[in-house]
Design brief:
- The protein has helices spanning about 40-45, 50-55, 60-65, 70-80, 90-100, 115-125, 130-140, 150-160, 170-185, 195-200, 205-225, 240-255, 275-285, 300-310, 325-335, 340-350, 360-365, 375-380, 385-395, 400-410, 415-440, 445-455, 460-480, 485-494, and strands at about 105-110, 185-195, 230-235, 260-265, 290-295, 315, 340, 370.
- With about 500 residues, it is an alpha/beta fold.
- The chain folds into 2 domains: about 10-15 and about 30-85 and about 435-494, no CATH class; about 100-395, Alpha-Beta Barrel (TIM Barrel).
- Strands 1-2-3-4-5-6-7-8 form an 8-stranded parallel β-sheet, sandwiched between helices.
- Helix 9 runs parallel beside helix 11 (about 205-225).
- The two termini are about 15 Å apart.
């Protein structure tokens, strides 16, 4: 029996792959299928994949069959699967898939990236005294108490972690630890933000020593791990304007040592951004990016203010812009990326629930959205986790995840060859991840995704049904009456 080699261009990885025939989108998208269920009982007519093919991975069918008709069915199913909500995948396969995706993290705080266990153990090793209330605060699970949580609650946990920044060497060591964890999560480019003032105050450190300690850590980590790192130096809203100017000048001074942008963080309700505008205008003149937190839980108009007055070319969070039509239009027309951190938004109460989070609405509105972790140590998440949760709750497809990761590449504070290199690395890696996902699906799982893609594209039900019936009839005929197909199947199952 001859075996057919299948080229990688057929699989979901190729964004240009299109189904053989497809109707235009009509009206609103139908609801996605529930996890682990058939997308529509009428489409399948209670038929199932013949047992002889049921457990054969799609990749094996591709590599070992020479049946041209079967390959045509697989091609079309894969092309539609690329467009389907991934909510029909089981959690284990979705987790493997998002871990395999090469990722770009644009919004991660160094000071919130270390898990409580590591912080407590590091303090013990370095002889740093942790009061009992600090240990209790750090050890408390990051979850809504009685269904309610606020950013004020989160800031309490955040400030409790600052005690570990004892000296420049401690800062270097912990920076390496944070970058190592990101690299192991298949993050290819990380833009790590930190507040020199917040990290310096507990032990009275010099602000410049804090910056140098972080830069030392980046240099050490990038020699050991396959990850690119850039730094965003952040001003705290609750500090003085004079300190804000010190931070801006430090950011500009170390622009050639990996610092790429100026940030603005802390409570936007209590501390409006207006008085920090001159610093961000100076940062623009100094050639730095501007990425202030805005529209997280403060007024929706804060996003427009950040763009107009702070010259923001990226917005941290920004989810409340959905309630400001003028700001939303500004974000769209100016193509301002939003650094959205879904789990953080839920846990801090910035968004009421996954169901009410505006991510899907912003994506459909054409906003350049990205997915990030914010404070992975305090919230107990990785970027892979965030991608999987977003895929489940926002009904994202492989194609949409590719778009979102590409948005992060485009929004990264990189230029020229560095950005081109990252884009090639990421797109190549996404192709490989998509290929591996499809290869490990069973035929039933592939059909579930394919029908989900057909529904999302607005294909009429009769066409969905015809595709499934034709595919099932072919498989049944192959299993029951086609000797060559039986031989293929027997070989695959051997």
């Amino acid at each position: 029996m001859g075996l057919k080699a299948v080229t990688s261009g057929i699989v979901v990885a190729n964004d240009s792959t299109k189904p053989r025939s497809k109707t235009e989108k009509t009206g609103s998208k139908p609801p996605p299928p529930a996890a682990n269920t058939l997308p529509d009982v009428d489409v399948f007519q209670s038929r199932s994949v013949p047992n002889i093919f049921a457990q054969v991975p799609v990749g094996d069918l591709y590599r070992k069959t020479n049946d041209a008709a079967l390959l045509r069915f697989l091609d079309e199913a894969i092309a539609y699967a690329h467009l389907a909500p991934l909510s029909s995948l089981d959690d284990a396969k979705l987790a493997i898939y998002t871990k395999s995706l090469p990722k770009v993290e644009l919004h991660q705080h160094l000071d919130g990236s270390i898990d409580p266990e590591t912080l407590i153990e590091f303090a013990r090793q370095r002889g740093i005294d942790l009061p009992a209330d600090t240990i209790e605060t750090l050890s408390r699970p990051a979850q809504k108490a009685n269904g309610r949580s606020t950013l004020k609650d989160f800031f309490e946990r955040f400030r409790s972690a600052q005690v570990v920044w004892k000296d420049r060497d401690a800062i270097k060591t912990l920076t390496v630890h944070v970058i190592e964890k990101a690299a192991h999560d298949n993050v290819k480019h990380l833009e790590l933000q930190f507040s020199p003032v917040g990290m310096a105050e507990c032990h009275g450190l010099d602000l410049e020593d804090v910056v140098k300690g972080v830069i030392d850590g980046v240099a050490a980590a990038t020699e050991q791990f396959a990850i690119g790192v850039r730094l965003i130096v952040t001003i705290s809203r609750r500090r003085s304007v004079a300190l804000g100017w010190e931070v801006e000048k430090l950011a500009a001074k170390y622009k050639d040592r990996g610092v790429v942008a100026l940030g603005l963080a802390s409570d936007e309700k209590a501390y409006p951004a207006d008085e920090f505008a001159p610093m961000f205008q100076a940062a623009e003149k100094d050639g730095l990016g501007r990425a202030p937190h805005s529209g997280e839980d403060g007024p929706a108009t804060n996003v427009a203010t950040a763009i107009k007055k702070l010259k923001a070319n990226r917005i941290g969070h920004g989810i409340r812009v959905i309630f400001d039509p003028e700001g939303l239009e500004l974000v769209r027309t100016e193509d301002i990326p939003l650094e959205i951190c879904p789990s953080s938004n839920i846990l801090t109460g910035a968004a009421e629930s996954w169901a009410k989070h505006p991510f899907r609405v912003l994506l459909d509105a054409g906003v350049r959205v990205t997915i990030n972790t914010d404070d992975p140590g305090l919230f107990g998440v990785t970027l892979s986790d965030e991608m999987a949760l977003a895929a489940k709750h926002f009904d994202l497809s492989c194609k949409e995840l590719r778009t979102i990761i590409s948005n992060s590449v485009d929004a990264a504070f990189l230029e020229g060859r560095d950005k081109q290199k990252l884009r090639l690395q990421v797109l190549t890696g996404i192709s490989e991840a998509n290929r591996a996902l499809v290869d490990n699906l069973t035929l039933r799982e592939l059909l579930l995704l394919a029908v989900g893609g057909m529904r999302r594209e607005g294909m009429p039900m009769d066409q969905q049904r015809k595709f499934v019936e034709d595919f099932m009839s072919y498989l049944e005929a192959a299993a029951e009456g086609n000797a060559a197909a039986k031989e293929d199947a027997a070989t695959l199952l051997a």
